[in-house]
Amino acid sequence: MMISENRDRISAPLPGTLTVLGLVLAAVLVQFGMRVVLVAGKGDLRDFAAGYTAAVVARTGASFYDPQPGKSWFDENVNADLVAAARQAGTLHQHPGFEHVHIFSYPPAMMFVFLPFSTVPFPVAKLIWLALSLLMIGWALWLLVRRFEFERLTVFGLLFVAAIFHPLRNTVDIGQVNALIFFGMTGFWVLYRQGRDVAAGVVLGITTAIRLHPGLLVLYLLWKRQFRVGGVALAVACAMSAGAAEVFGFRDTAIYFEQVAPKFTVPLISVENHSLAGFLATVAHACGWGLSGQVVGPAWLAWGAALVVIGATLLLLLRGRQTPGPDRLSDVELALLMVAIPLAAPNATVCHLLVLLPCIGVLLDRMVRHAVSREVLWPALTGLAVILIGVVDDFYVHPLLARGPWIFLAEIKFYGVVLLYTALASQLMALRRSPHV
Predict the structure, then answer these.
(1) Residue 39 in contact with residue 175, Cβ under 8 Å?
(2) How far is CA 372 from CA 84, 211, 264, in A?
């Protein structure tokens, strides 16, 4: 039996293979570096510009949100203070026929991140943010490689995927804060693996306070009675939110939770929304199955899609559990939860998918360590997911793909996330069947 199993295992790399892989990796890293140089020189970093402008307004004591009441989604700016600050700072984003500044859509605690940048001119601030984004992404990748003890082939594969990963490139191009979220979620994961529950809870709590999506993970940890992690995370998130309300004013906290956040509880109808609710709303709109003339889908669709994803994930996580108590989550379980978050959220853009890189790393390492030649399905699903999420660029937003059955071709990143979820579910079930678990 052992002989047969050994023969089935994927053979070790031939001599010189790592050298060739190193050359390929060096080439894509140089290409990525050249892209960063172009962004530094010509990029407008419009997402960072939105946070910077809001921070400039916050320093004056005026409201830094632009909730645009009466509109189902965000359109032209209404907050005159925000527009005036953007015009003075040079952060207005140009469109044919009009100009605007992208709205600050994050919780008030995120202002702790942006406020220091408002003390320097925008051209300087955006270069500092670009450098910090690269540092956070690089540090997160180093943590993955070093603390997860990946095989050498896994390291080459993960770094190659990162260098060409569309969510990562898009995050850098527009100065998206998901570089910070990626760093925070990776830091939490590493600390959790090391058994440093309090530190892991602190990092997860900070990340949740500035971006609410990781709150699903906090709730799951509390439900699993892992109170040292989940309880600390909840306490830190609440403390940061209360501190932001005290520092930046209860008025803006109320505006966020009463007017801004509710708009994100319904799915935007767009091929750039890669959640399950976004997929269903966009397909229904394009195919004429209702929602005609609408910009967003109904709230019941968002709740229904979230319940489907959460229910399926809980079923997978709880099925075959050998102990009902607060046992620690494996890497595959955490990866499944991480992939479930953008699927369950009403809105998930390409930048949100950056946090899937650790999940891809976990699958790549299992492929290197445990895959056998007769196992074809889950490695194929993983590879196809990497291609659809990470390699295929912005062709899916072409206007031709926004109408009728063509919409199904435009939803490729959603398919990639589903395939990644399926590959992780397959590996989780395989782990549960293993006699060594």
Answers:
(1) no
(2) 61, 39, 43
Is the whole model's pTM more than 0.85, yes or no? yes
Contact 111, 248 (CB under 8 A): yes
The token pair that represents 228 in the structure block: 């040292």
- Token pair in block for residue 264: 């994100």
Residue-level pLDDT at 9: 46
How many separate domains does the chain show? Answer: 2
At 283 the pLDDT is 93
Between strands 93-95 and 98-100, the pairing is antiparallel
Is residue 224 located within the same domain as residue 275? no
Give Cα separations from 154 to 71, 161, 259, 297, 358 (angstroms): 47, 10, 45, 40, 11
Note whether residue 162 is domain-resident: no
Q: Residue 378 in contact with residue 175, Cβ under 8 Å?
A: no
pLDDT digits (tens, 9 = 90+) for 230-262: 999 999 999 999 999 999 999 999 999 999 999
Q: What is the mean pLDDT of residues 265-276?
A: 94
The Cα–Cα gap between 14 and 193 comes to: 32
Query: What single DSSP character describes residue 296?
Result: B
Q: Which among 217, 244, 259 is the end of a domain?
A: 259
Q: HSE-up of 244 (CA within 13 Å, CB side)?
A: 27
Question: pLDDT tens across 69-88, in order?
Answer: 888 888 888 889 999 998 99
| 324 in the same domain as 420 | yes
Structure tokens at 310: 């959460």
φ, ψ for residue 268, nearest 5 deg: -70, 135
Residues 209, 275 within the same domain: no
Angle at 262 between CA 51 and CA 184, to 5 degrees: 50
Statement to judge: residues 82 and 225 lie in one domain: yes
State which residues form the domain around 436. Answer: 266-437
Task: Identify the pLDDT of residue 16.
Answer: 75
Same structural domain, 216 and 329: no
**Is residue 67 included in any domain, yes or no?**
yes
Of 237, 259, 281, the residue at which a domain comes to its end is 259
- The helix/strand/coil state of 14 is coil
pLDDT in tens, 319-376: 765 444 456 788 999 999 999 999 999 999 999 999 999 999 999 999 888 766 677 8
